[in-house]
Amino acid sequence: RLLAFLAPLMQFSAAFIASAVEDFNRANDSAGLVVPILLIPGGLAFAIWPVIFISYCMLGFYQLKKKYLHDPRFVTGRPYIFFSCLGNVIWFYGDVQYILWVCTIGFLMMLYSLLKLNNTFHLGQKSSSIQERWFIKFPISLFFGWITVAFPIGITLLLVSDFGISGRAFLTPEIWSTIILTISISIF
């Protein structure tokens, strides 16, 4: 319970520190990529971060309630709440240091944990209460939505920068970007 409470705070702190160190609204060529990546989010796309992190902190606080101490959903979900946040902290570290394989490890941790949380809390089903909707389903859904788009973009950056595989090798950047969007929608 304590780790599921502290992890969202750790994640929020890491986001604040990383944002102070790194300009996430950087140009597409900041990592020295040989081709433009047309799907890198920037500017207003990052405005959702505070909402994700604050709502996840609310989830961490909400799960501390005594009535949820032995709730099977939270007993199962708490480790995944922790690991989704840890994965994000790892991603922040990798992004600030421009180590894309570290970012990929963080992405995989987040995606797997959020998939497990999706299944544990049945995000696609109607909530039994407004508190459940806002303190459980909203934070997980919002974070999961962000990762479904960010994950394929992160993998694309890894393929381009570390392996030299790009849309220009066999497709156009526009078709490559369309494929990445299709993968994002498929994950979602």
Largest sheet: none
Shape: globular
Number of separate strands = 0
Structural category is mainly alpha
Helix and strand string, N-terminal first? HHHHHHH
Helix content: over 70%
- Poorly predicted runs: none
| Cα-to-Cα separation, first versus last residue | 28 Å
Descriptive report:
This protein has 188 residues and is mainly α. It contains seven helices and no strands. The longest helix has 34 residues, at 130-163. The model has no long low-confidence stretch (mean pLDDT 85).
Please supply descriptive tags for the structure shown above.
188 residues; single chain
Brief characterization of the structure:
The chain is mainly α and 188 residues long. It has helices at 2-21, 48-62, 72-97, 100-121, 130-163, 167-170, 173-187.
